[in-house]
Amino acid sequence: MVGMAPLPFEKERKIYGPGLRTWQLTKALLEEGHEVLLICYGIPSAYEKGVLSREVESPAKELRYLVLNHEKYEDGQYLAGLARQFSPDCMVAVTLYPCYVAARLELDEPLWADLFGHVLGEAQARASVYKDDSLLFHYWNQEMRIIDRADVFSCVSQRQVYATIGELGLVGRLNRHTAGYRFAHCIPISIPTEKKEHDLQVLRGRDVSEDHFVILWSGGYNTWTDVDTLFVALEEAMKVDGQIRFVSTGGEIPELDDQTYGHFQELIQDSPFSDRFILKGWVKTEEVHNYYYESDLGINIDRDIYEVELGSKNRIVEWMNYGLPVLSSRVCELTEILEEHGAGFTYPPGDAETLKDKILQLAQDREGLREAGARGARLAAQLFSVKATTTALREWAAHPQPAPDRGQERALDQSREEAFRNLEKIVQRQKEMIAERDARIRDLEMVFHRSPLYRIYGFLNLARKKVLRKG
């Protein structure tokens, strides 16, 4: 298996969605009695002391678990060597980057690729926030490599399954060999870990009083988070109800989005109710569950875009597991399931007025909220356990087979392979150009810092500071 780290049982600084997803599929295979070699890319911002390539002690004797830095993870010969030593019956790759790495390995074992969310929708969201369409190629190139190589796929929603089938058609894999073959399966997000007891007071009597109505956000603020609607609705609700408090655990995601959370902080700073917004930042992983126990409502705010429409939400499933009632924009498939079972509350995306009214209504019905939270917990246990969500993977792993078109000539092969080769040459040249540019900048900085002009500038700047201190 190849995936992303850290995993939930590690006591690292942060646990991101890709790590939760990796553990979901790993745990499913371990429960079936499989022996697993798991090789993960360590997400740099999740580790307090940086990512050191190493073997990590695992919670199961059937699992050998390695965490690698970027350089090691990109070394295809090294990974292929580890795989050959292990001699697997199949490969399972979890989330985009590990799937891309696995697709490039020169190995013949059948490959299951878990596409954790629709990456081209994510690319669109990032391009929108950063106002830069050049980001699209990076995602497209990786996705197409995966779609071309993998034998079977899993997705987080049935909607994403259909999107993936469309991509398979575009690369010529809906052909005469695969007619009737089930390429893609839905594996919903599962409850990530066992439910923990409330073991530490983190909010009540500290940041908020016992009678405050606490609305919780937990996790990263990514490109699809609608912080503008969230802020407007909360501020308007706070004008009416002085008991409302907003608490946030989490923050920016350096590898993906360093703008959305900062923008939200700026909005809060200018608010007359800024003291009612309690931003805790990223808290210790082992403490997060205590915030669920001490909050009244979990809030999820998404933009109405394809990434969300085709995806799902870890935070919602985790809140459900702890019986925390959920209020969410009605965009992804999961929110429709919540609404259908009366296990949560929704509002139209981007509608701050309706969201404000929902918040005020729920703040006055705490008993009704608790009942909805209990329904959510029962629904999570029924639909979103690891076992309930991973049936398709378990069945395939028992008798893994390549796709019927493996080794068969495809009508689109020649032109597509030539395009891939050309595109990868472009990517490599871009990397070389960036490295050359950085080297030139370093050389120029060294020359400038050694020049007489720079020394004169430094002397004048020092003299100016002395004059200012005397003044």
TrEMBL record:
It holds the Pfam family Glyco_trans_1_4. It comes from Candidatus Hakubella thermalkaliphila. This is Glycosyl transferase family 1 domain-containing protein. Gene3D superfamilies: Glycogen Phosphorylase B.
